[in-house]
Amino acid sequence: MTGKVKTIAVLTARPGKLDMLRDLLEELIEPSRAEPGNLAYDLWVDPAEPGRFVLDELYVDFPAVEAHHATPHFQIYLARIPSLAERCVWTLDEVVVA
């Protein structure tokens, strides 16, 4: 597939881990946005469930996603996230995007 790639990750804090999860997710924002293939990297929180976060990421193409996954900051996140949150991730190909 060619074209932009969207990644959406929903992370729900494990009991007692909310602050640590939020800190980890916030640490990802600046270095991820600085990656050459990144078009957007945004962190959202569910006001109805403050322990549920959504990472909304947009990349120029799939190689940019792979490059993101190879970065040191993503590797740190990947190593730490299992103890902090339940995680669901979707990687989506562009169909019709404004």
TrEMBL record:
Keywords: Monooxygenase, Oxidoreductase. It holds the Pfam family ABM. Gene3D superfamilies: 3.30.70.100. PROSITE patterns: ABM. GO terms for molecular function: monooxygenase activity. The keyword Oxidoreductase applies. It comes from the Bacteria. InterPro entries: ABM_dom, AI-2_Isomerase_LsrG, Dimeric_a/b-barrel. Residues 5-98 form the ABM domain. PANTHER family: ABM DOMAIN-CONTAINING PROTEIN, QUINOL MONOOXYGENASE YGIN-RELATED. This is Antibiotic biosynthesis monooxygenase. It comes from Caulobacter segnis.
